[in-house]
Amino acid sequence: MKFTTAQIVGLAAALSSTAAADLVKGFNYGSTDSSNQPITQSQYEDLFKTAEGLKGTAGFTSARLYTMIQAGTPNSPIEAIPAAIAQNTKLLLGLWASAGQDQFNQELTALKSAIDTYGSQLGDLLLGISVGSEDLYRDSIMGIQANAGIGAGPDVILSYIKQVKQLISGTALANTPITHVDTWTAWVNGSNADVVSSIDFVSVDLYPYFQNTMANSIDVAKNLFWDAIDQTQANAQGKDIWVTETGWPVSGPNENQAVASLANAKTYWDEVGCDIFTKMNTFWYTLQDASPVTPSPSFGVVGSQLSTTPLFDLTCPAGSSSSSSSSSSSAAATSSSSSADPSSSAAATSTEATTSSSDPASSSAAASTPSSSAAAAATASSAAVSADDVAKSSATSGPASTSEAAPATSSAAAAVSSAAPVSSEAPAAPSTTTEAAPATSAAESVAPVESTTAPVATGAAASVVASTLSVLGLAAFVSLL
Ligand SMILES: *[C@@H]1O[C@H](CO)[C@@H](O)[C@H](O)[C@H]1NC(C)=O
């Protein structure tokens, strides 16, 4: 079959616009608020409605979750699901995968229950299912050195992926794409290649703000972002890459040259967000992380009062998202150009990354730095079971997941390098973290049952710990560099 040039051009244009129109735009949602209270169905509905009606934007109709379990319950399906069905919000489900097989069984129980209860109503809304969040990072040399908390290695994640595929087989969710969220350092690590092979798309978390061992001012944030995407893409085995977390704090401590401010949050939204919203499936971090307590750093584009009026203007600059239909391939192109930009730290980073490619260990480290922060956020979030808990605890600090992560992050940051300021947010975080640590270990070593009993607490603790660890891990990694 032959095509004329005009046909090809037309086809390309059609695909391009279709792709842009079909791209996922959403936010991350933990299972608890910033005071560690479970988020209820009606609250999720309010959040989803707010995201969809956010002034200056359109199309934020998707949500990423960190756990299948409703906070405060052993294994009841998270109430974000009926809320999403009520609001027609698309979902990227998540199962927390770093608390051992027993706790993962609770995640599976909640998933099975959700399928039994909602069936195709749920299946029709699903963008995918993520088995885990930053588990590989936490279980890596970097994560361990950073005391990032309990993670899980590739064999465990592969086993869990298989379990999820078996569970959904023959159900209304049978065709749901499966993914795993991790830091880019994890994705460039050749030891994790089998995980890449086993998933349908690669999900990565990226936070230039946290890359505090590098030049990371808002001026080079875009370059850092694209460099990390490039490194991830080089190891993605040709699979699609989704950005599952990225964002810039509206308030909080400085991280090296990164300054948390409304102005910089807007710059990052304009230069990174508005660019990728037309090129890649994205879950921004985040809609709201400041209810009822404002975490430090705080990433929410909406303040402590839920409102469709954001803290800064989210209207994309002319020529960014709207004009970007040609940008589908931009991810690659952009990254290339950024790497080529000598002035950017991205270039430096990429060089390292490149170098490291030959040295898996080093490259991972480099790669992970960016992701770590993201991971931290993600991790925190993901703790889900804990995630929920995390979300709750984190809630203060950031996205559900993030919120939890934030506190952890602060600690991590403080420990690692400069981040000390962050701790301020964490009134809750410190205590949470402390408590969480014991809980987490106990949960893991002792028994999943505990988690069942006190899902929330354990989860939160785990999340916090994870977050902290992630952050630390990142910092540690950076120092190594
Ligand atoms: C690479 O991945 C493996 C398996 O996840 C992990 O054990 C190892 O620590 C990682 N290497 C680095 C340098 O992070």
UniProtKB/TrEMBL annotation:
<dbReference type="GO" id="GO:0098552">
    <property type="term" value="C:side of membrane"/>
</dbReference>
<dbReference type="Pfam" id="PF00332">
    <property type="entry name" value="Glyco_hydro_17"/>
</dbReference>
<keyword id="KW-0961">Cell wall biogenesis/degradation</keyword>
<keyword id="KW-0624">Polysaccharide degradation</keyword>
<dbReference type="GO" id="GO:0071555">
    <property type="term" value="P:cell wall organization"/>
</dbReference>
<keyword id="KW-1003">Cell membrane</keyword>
<dbReference type="GO" id="GO:0000272">
    <property type="term" value="P:polysaccharide catabolic process"/>
</dbReference>
<dbReference type="InterPro" id="IPR017853">
    <property type="entry name" value="GH"/>
</dbReference>
<dbReference type="GO" id="GO:0005886">
    <property type="term" value="C:plasma membrane"/>
</dbReference>
<dbReference type="GO" id="GO:0005576">
    <property type="term" value="C:extracellular region"/>
</dbReference>
<dbReference type="GO" id="GO:0009986">
    <property type="term" value="C:cell surface"/>
</dbReference>
<keyword id="KW-0964">Secreted</keyword>
<dbReference type="GO" id="GO:0009277">
    <property type="term" value="C:fungal-type cell wall"/>
</dbReference>
<dbReference type="GO" id="GO:0042973">
    <property type="term" value="F:glucan endo-1,3-beta-D-glucosidase activity"/>
</dbReference>
<keyword id="KW-0472">Membrane</keyword>
<keyword id="KW-0378">Hydrolase</keyword>
<dbReference type="InterPro" id="IPR000490">
    <property type="entry name" value="Glyco_hydro_17"/>
</dbReference>
<keyword id="KW-0325">Glycoprotein</keyword>
<keyword id="KW-0336">GPI-anchor</keyword>
<dbReference type="InterPro" id="IPR050732">
    <property type="entry name" value="Beta-glucan_modifiers"/>
</dbReference>
<feature type="signal peptide">
    <location>
        <begin position="1"/>
        <end position="20"/>
    </location>
</feature>
<feature type="region of interest" description="Disordered">
    <location>
        <begin position="420"/>
        <end position="446"/>
    </location>
</feature>
<protein>
    <recommendedName>
        <fullName>Probable glucan endo-1,3-beta-glucosidase eglC</fullName>
        <ecNumber>3.2.1.39</ecNumber>
    </recommendedName>
</protein>
<keyword id="KW-0119">Carbohydrate metabolism</keyword>
<comment type="similarity">
    <text>Belongs to the glycosyl hydrolase 17 family.</text>
</comment>
<comment type="function">
    <text>Glucanases play a role in cell expansion during growth, in cell-cell fusion during mating, and in spore release during sporulation. This enzyme may be involved in beta-glucan degradation and also function biosynthetically as a transglycosylase.</text>
</comment>
<feature type="region of interest" description="Disordered">
    <location>
        <begin position="320"/>
        <end position="368"/>
    </location>
</feature>
<keyword id="KW-0449">Lipoprotein</keyword>
<keyword id="KW-0732">Signal</keyword>
<keyword id="KW-0134">Cell wall</keyword>
